[in-house]
């Protein structure tokens, strides 16, 4: 279960995600299962409205990461995914 304090912090990052064209942001890891410590990081996988491998690169990832860290006052890990990217599905 996500802590109320975490949900409140997540509201602060919506403008950052919108600024960079993020369509969906998935929070995963310790912040979602109740095992986070005060200094735990935030783990995000993000999908973009449109994806261009030349634009969506490490430089952009670092820019987004730094802005999210500023808003959340905690370390952030971010993974980029193309929309509907699924080369393998476990059934």
Question: Could you explain how this protein is built, in words?
Answer:
The protein is α+β, with helices and mostly antiparallel strands and 91 residues long. The protein has one domain: Beta Polymerase, domain 2 (2-Layer Sandwich), CATH 3.30.460. Helix content is 36%, strand content 22%. The chain has four helices and three strands, in the order ααβαβαβ. It has helices at 4-11, 14-19, 30-33, 58-72; strands spanning 22-28, 42-48, 76-81. A three-stranded mixed β-sheet has the order 1-2-3. Helix 4 (58-72) links the parallel strand 2 and strand 3 (76-81). The relative contact order is 0.20. This is Polymerase beta, Nucleotidyltransferase. One of its GO terms (molecular function) is transferase activity. Keywords: Transferase. InterPro entries: NT_sf, Polbeta, TA_antitoxin_MntA. Residues 11-84 form the Polymerase beta nucleotidyltransferase domain.
